[in-house]
Amino acid sequence: MAPSVMVPVLSLLDRRDQVDRGACAAYAQRACETWLDGFLVAGSLGLGFRLPERVQWDLLEVWRSHVPADRLFACAWRPSETLRISDAGVRPVLVLRDLKDDDAVLRALESLPTDALVYSHPQYTGAVLSSAVVDKARSIGSLPAGAKVSKVELEDVRALREAAGPEFALFDGRCRHVCASVAAGATGVVAVPLTVLPEDLPPRENVHALQAVIDRGQAVVDAHSDVADQADALRRLLLESL
Asked: What is the separation, in whole angstroms, between the first and last Cα of the chain?
């Protein structure tokens, strides 16, 4: 089974920290011409956590102008942003932040739009999206449409799939072993190294060649421990090719 691939995109800003519309448009247009399934705007790699809401929205507007909305996701760093993103025809991805226990996670899921996903990363929240939470949410009718889960093992992916059922869009935040992630039950992976849109991107069906291209880019990511430094290194590579 060929994996679905979500790519977090870089936020291309000018010296005034406003959207560089020319560069961003060229980036989005090139992304649209690939087979990649989805593009995540204002995620961690896009440093969405530090962007003003207006700049996040400007980024999304540029991407919407060049990429069909059904291929776009947008991170919502505040719960209040999810409905606006959904109303724009884009799937919101609510970042779980500062939640202390499973009950707090369940409450965060209660009022999400039906097309929303959640982003679970222990860097941002004490309580994450566990299989126990998913099982409870499914039983009470508050299961989101999917999730991007980071810092999980393959057994966690299996447990989440079992709890969520077959329709849940489950993206493994790691892309170091695409085949194993899909075999464990992931719908697909989040591929940070592909944010530069490599020219030698192989066909979706050639998963082994795809993994090799991902691994090559992963070496650039692994050379930096801080996400801002990773974004800077990847941005330099991207701008050389636009």
From this structure: 32
